[in-house]
Amino acid sequence: MKLDAASMAASSNEQRNRALENAAEKLRAHAAEVFAENEKDLAAATEAGIAPAVMKRLKFNEDKLNDVLAGIRQLVSLPDPLGKVSLARELDEGLRLYRVSCPIGVIGVIFEARPDALVQISTLCIKSGNCAILKGGKETTYTNRALFRLIHEAVTEAGLPENALLQAEQHSEIDELLSCDRDVDLLIPRGSNAFVQYIMNNTKIPVMGHADGICHIYVDKAADFGKAVPIIVDAKTQYTAACNAVETLLVNREIAGEFLPLLAEALKAEHVRLLGTREVREIIDVTEITEDEFREYLDLAVSVKLVKDVDEAVSHINRFGSHHTDSIITEDRETALKFMQMVDSAGVYQNCSTRFADGFRYGFGAEVGISTGKIHARGPVGLEGLVTYKYKLFGDGHIVGDYAAGRRQFHFRDLEKDADRD
Amino acid sequence: MKLDAASMAASSNEQRNRALENAAEKLRAHAAEVFAENEKDLAAATEAGIAPAVMKRLKFNEDKLNDVLAGIRQLVSLPDPLGKVSLARELDEGLRLYRVSCPIGVIGVIFEARPDALVQISTLCIKSGNCAILKGGKETTYTNRALFRLIHEAVTEAGLPENALLQAEQHSEIDELLSCDRDVDLLIPRGSNAFVQYIMNNTKIPVMGHADGICHIYVDKAADFGKAVPIIVDAKTQYTAACNAVETLLVNREIAGEFLPLLAEALKAEHVRLLGTREVREIIDVTEITEDEFREYLDLAVSVKLVKDVDEAVSHINRFGSHHTDSIITEDRETALKFMQMVDSAGVYQNCSTRFADGFRYGFGAEVGISTGKIHARGPVGLEGLVTYKYKLFGDGHIVGDYAAGRRQFHFRDLEKDADRD
Questions:
Q1: Which residues of A are less than 8 Å from B391 in CB distance?
Q2: For chain B, which terminus, N or C, has the lower number of CB atoms within 10 Å?
């Protein structure tokens, strides 16, 4: 089935908002049915002996419903991301160029477990005028089917094309989707690291997201320990399963003797397991490992290593990190700026917790996800990550031959951006 | 060998401009040596029986030198693409977020034949603070080596890192480069369609460029024939080898009887071979082919097909086109706007030649290339296609736990963009 990206690109903001409002109404009106379908999934999961942590993510209840409804209301209130003019220029008399934002086209969304992700991402695609192919995890087949049906009805009743949204249900369809590089413009995977890594390694379609999040904090010799210790405790323990939790601490050798005992005491009080290089073990009690064994724990554990200076910290981060978010603790402005210029990550911080890397905390509202890629969108990505642009050129019989022969000249005059003829 | 992207990211605009000025001086001072090396390549090419058209592209003479020197001078005069602040926001008292442009990192440049491309792209990378791995065609080994040596000297003498530029000379190194998805952030191929297609199909690294350029012109029933005919002649004949030359004409069935004879007469006067569907052959003299046989000719030949309306034209273009540049000829504003919204191409034009799709004609100055991808940069790409951004967050001991517990609240206050502390 071919998705109707061209019609979606021509839809109005009013139609797209109406589809979102319809979706919110339908989800509210048919909540009991959705919850009943979710019970079927939960029962099957219980029978299959699914782990309690996963069970929690499978659940779609009143709380989750309220969250997605709040998200939809917020989306409706956002300005239209399409038709924004970022360049308006008269090339010559009667020849006007506009660079205008437009949908990317067809977004493939592949997610594990969480049925609320289906609602969240499909509504982001609707708002941004994209078509979406949605493939959820088999653990929530019943819930996904019920949610998809309601959203699809909402879309068609708003006059948007029947083929704006497509649901893929078979597991084999993941590989099929990954091979559709002619028809799918962007993939957004949501799930475990291994899952995202698999997607990234098995497709030619651009992937927006992140596999691992190996975030670092470098404690400089000019660090204020009174800031360093609480920041590290926060970054490690506030939510250990998050991709922006800190996984590796780099400590300047000059202050290690004084700082590490303070740090160890604070982390041990929070039951954080410490691992570190031999040099670290000579100062505090850690499980000795080499830097090649440092990894993403997503748990109450952290790796520690000593470095000579900010340059060595930068080298370590760029080599072993995942280009997500890294922080320096220092009172020295020059050192901080150097760190922030040289560390090749989406987020580079001074004197604050890596846990701030999040669309909500950046004040972005609706979040598509966090991207560690450097092409297109980077870091926490809002609706703008789902749009691209095209150049519209309005002429009146203009031909290049006239300019090549010198009969006419370009004059390149910038126009008011709101003067778009579109 | 590891490229020193971190040091390049920390370089100043002055250093990068000095490197460019050094390069221009050295190229001028050592022109005779470079031309002599080029003579060796040309002699080898003559001996190997290389086609005259290719020979022309291998040549590096006074004219080509003057072109690249003019390009370098223009690059020096452009503002620094790095350090531009596109978002500045105080999240809370003392917690300030900036989104700042920065280099992408390491750019792999793979080009066939033209040695001037080596100078052009390496200087664009220098200006934008990127490291570059340059792999030229074996036909110009001597010329490339001479050019690279001069540019590399210019870079190091300006105080930029030794490892900012790397030259790859072995053919086997192409496949090695394509597999370096951990170390290379973006590939820019320059060469034939088959060459670019090979690159795109054999790497996980994002590729910026275009393989084919199957551009369309749709002649609507509300077309002014006095504009349509010269535009089509220009788009087809002004420079047939260009990717933005028109390859397929779609003509509204209602006007075909009247329009096609006019068109055929004009194109035949320019020695353009006409190919078309059976329906077209019933009106004018064309070689009959089916729409599946339409292709990119890059020559004095064009395919013609009749369509019912703008919707059918859009469907054909989105299915058979290459998302490059497509034009509608119509006096009907609504039809034009619909075409421009629904055609999924980097350039969508009304009443002008597809040949306008070009960075110089858009007034962009230095051009990296034309991209038909929809992620990152699209259409003619200037320096901005070689930069990304990072988020810099400056705090003073801020932790997420305080906000999660409600002890502190974000206030999201936009700051002056020039107030960047960086």
A1: 346-348, 357, 362, 378-380
A2: N
Residues of B in contact with A403 (CB under 8 A): 361
pLDDT of residue B1: 58
Closest CA–CA distance from residue A139 to any residue of chain B (Å): 30
- DSSP-derived letter for residue A222 is T
**pLDDT above 90: residue B365:** no
Residue B56, CA distances (Å) to A187, A198, B62, B146 in order: 42, 46, 13, 19
Residue of A11, A179, A352 to mutate, testing the B interface (most B Cβ within 10 Å of its Cβ): A352
For the segment A281-303, the average pLDDT, to the nearest whole number, is: 96
- A83-to-A419, B64, B303 alpha-carbon distances in Å: 12, 41, 33
Look-up of token digits 């009146």:
A396
**Strand, helix or coil for residue A265:** helix
Interface of B with A in 176-215 (CB under 8 A): 185-186, 200-201, 204, 206
Closest CB to A352: pick one of B352, B398, B422.
B398
Angle between helix axes A253-269 and A225-237 (nearest 10 degrees) is 50
Question: What tokens appear for A311 in the block?
Answer: 């340059």
A113's torsion region: left (phi>0), alpha (psi -120 to 50) or beta?
left
pTM score of the predicted model: 0.91
pLDDT at A382: 85
ipTM of the complex model:
0.91
- CB distance B378–A388 less than 8 Å? yes
The candidate with the shortest Cα–Cα distance to B215, out of B128, B145, B320, is: B320
Residues in chain B with CB shorter than 8 Å from the CB of A227 are 396-397
Q: Model confidence over A71-102: pLDDT tens digits? A: 999 999 999 999 999 999 999 999 999 999 99
Helices (H) and strands (E) in chain B, counts: 15, 17
Give chain B positions within 8 Å (CB) of A105.
Answer: 344, 374
Domains, chain A, with CATH or none: 5-208+368-386 (3.40.605.10), 215-356 (3.40.309.10)
The residue type of A289 is: I
